[in-house]
Structures are given as structure tokens and as C-alpha cells.
């Protein structure tokens, strides 16, 4: 599960060789450490002319104590220049005022000078208005074009940086703090080139050091890999966690549950009585459900057996649907609950030898989209997180050649860590994240697959 090339590329000899031969040059990504308070460890530059910056300003000094603006006197902040300013750790550009094609050059004018002044792992967020919310076709096209800009900048930024686009809808400005705390901090280390829509949400995070305090969360497939990390991060953020896995994983599951002060439930999610047993195991109900348990049984379609096809559909797709329905029927999912489904970029891009897996993961995205309107009436959000190549036992089992290709074919030239997926899940699980529903967030280092 270790990436030896990453270590080599960051050694003095490796750096020289990688540069001389033009090989992929992955940098060590910064990740969130427990106990850290400020999301941005350095200078944050605000730019653009739209109304959304006014919503950012009241909490911007909680993100960092080094705030700058792109123009003299803007927002009453000191002006940043590449010559005199500190290295930039984060940039927020409000592009919501752009309605004419001639204005698009403002994107270049703002970002070009910053390239000389970026720190390592810089985080960029562009703010805009969802094209479908605009009546004027030109304005809608201009806002849609921000997607192309964001995704291209993500591929150019390097240094372990990331670039995202947030379309802010009605009421969404009230939830910008949670979104920016995620996208401007190392919590989103392996997320780049993503486009999300923020809407209104009645709930707000009260304590940013423990945003999930008082919440009860269930994580399936929690004995190892990504699931174990999700349980850990949700517990770090204050949630009471119930960890579920198959009976064969009982020892690891119980050990982790004990360490996190949570509870272990051993259950095969495909068992006929799984819905009933799950409901019985959760007398007090739940606020957060994370459907993470998943399997692969790879074969090309020509060689795909019934058993390979059915087992993958049953675990990855049918069980999340059946169990969520059972929790809803038994009234175990509290109002303002959060459901997060773990999909995969295979479900977006498709993958050789994975028709069964891609079907199941595309289906999971379909579940989030299909369920969102009905669940939204109770304030419940449902989203999918689609990991790319994550360093786990699942990917360690991939043959070397394919494994190396999967690892490097992304803007960060490396695989992600289970923590990267877990941080995204934890953000979706927050009270204010009801502002996001029926959406897919890729945690893939901006993988070239399906981009
Ligand atoms: P993993 O194999 O390390 O862990 C999966 C866990 O699910 C295991 O603990 C397993 O016991 C549990 N599980 C499997 N079948 C179960 C069942 N019937 N009932 C209860 N528990 C069951 O895998 P991982 O790499 O940590 O993947 C976690 C999730 O992320 C999966 O849904 C996977 O498809 C998805 N994913 C992983 C990657 C990656 O690169 N590792 C990429 C994209 C998506």
C-alpha cells in the first residue's frame, strides 16, 4: 500500500532524475491533522466583484489571519502583489458578476499574477451562479464556462494544488463557511476539478472543532480501509459511531469501535434478515448513514460469471438501497439526516474488466439523485462520494502495471489516502451540508478517467 515512487521523487536524487527525465513529479500532499484550528495556514487572497464575497467576509478571518484583496481598497483589505505579498495558500475568486463573454478575461487577469506567488498545496475556489438559474442565455453560458476554466486550472496549478467551482444558489451563501473550510483546507487534499451546487439549508454547524457533536453515525464496511478511516474522522468530528462489517471482520471491527468509543455491529449487509437486524441494532435511530461496504469481482464481460455479477450488485447497490429503505420505513433516519454513498470513478468513466462494478457504482449515483427530492422534504441530504485510486487493500491487489497507471493518471500523479475520502464524507455529514444534495464529489486527484 506504500507508494515508493512518491518517496523517491521527493528525495534529493529522485527530484533531479525525475526533473531531467520529465517523469511525473508527485509532491507530498498536506493533510489535516487532529488539533489544527485554522483551515488556511497562510495568506488568503480574495478577488472578483460579485455579491458572494460579501457573504465570505464575515467569517474570512476565522479561516486565516492573513487576508488580502486583489485591488487597492477592495473590501478594506491590504492589497496583495506577487512582489510584496506573502506566498498564497488559498484564493477565492467571486465570478458571479460575470455575465458577458468580454468579462471572462477577468479570470486571466486575476489568476495570472498569482502564479508567481503560490505556496505549496495552494487551494483555489471559484464562486459562481448555476447556469440553469439564469434567464439570459449569454450569462448562463458565461457561468457554465467557469467549469472549463476551473478544470483546466486544476491541471495547470501543480505543487499539490487544487481548484474547485462552487455554484451558489438561493440561500447557499449562508453555507459558504462550511464549504470553504473544506475546500480551502488540507481536508480536500485529493479533491480537484470539482463542480458543486450549494443551496439553502436550515441547519448550521455550531462548533467548528466538533461539527458532528451530538450526531449518531453508521458506517458500513468499517473494519478496514476507507470505512475505518471514515469512522475515525466522523468520531474525530464529534459523532457517536456505529461500525458495521461482516462477522469475519469482528476482531478488527471491535478493536476500532473500542478505540473510537463507538459500537460494533457484525452483519452481512446482503443477508436476508439484514434490514430487520440493522433496525433492531439502532434503537435510537441515526443522523448519518455512510454506505461504504463494497467489493470488486473483476472480469471482462466475456468471462463474467453469475456469481461475480450478482455479488457485486448485491453488496454495492442493492444493500445500500434495501437498508436505507428499511431505516426510513422504521423511522430510524432522523430529520435533517445525511446519507452518503461511496461510489467510484469507475461508475462515472467505466473501466475495463469492471462492468459489474461500474454498474453498481453508477447505480449508487442514481440512488442519490433519485432519492434526493423525497428525502429533502425531511431536510435529509443524500450524496455520493466517488473515489479514484485510493491506497487500500483493494487497490494493493491490482496487478502492478495497471496499479501504477491508476496511481499516476491524475493531476497529482499519486493515489489518495483513505483519509481523503473520509474528510469528504465528514463534510457531507455536517449539519450545514444539507445545502448539497443529489450530487457527486470525486475524490480522485482530478483523475483523467471520466474527467
Ligand atoms: P476494502 O475491501 O478494504 O473494505 C471494504 C469493507 O467492506 C471490508 O471491511 C469488507 O469486509 C466490507 N464488506 C464487504 N462486503 C460486506 C458485506 N456483505 N457486509 C458487510 N460488510 C462488507 O475496500 P476499500 O478500498 O476500503 O473500499 C471501500 C469503498 O470504497 C468500497 O465501496 C469501494 O468500492 C469504494 N472505492 C474504493 C476505491 C479504492 O481505490 N480503494 C476506489 C473507488 C471506490
From TrEMBL:
Keyword Oxidoreductase in record: yes
EC number: 1.1.1.100
Domain named Ketoreductase: residues: 215-388
UniProt keyword terms in alphabetical order: Oxidoreductase
The protein's enzyme class: oxidoreductase
Molecular function terms, GO-annotated: 3-oxoacyl-[acyl-carrier-protein] reductase (NADPH) activity
Domain of life of the native organism: Bacteria
Pfam families on file: adh_short_C2
Family per record: Belongs to the short-chain dehydrogenases/reductases (SDR) family.
Protein name: 3-oxoacyl-ACP reductase
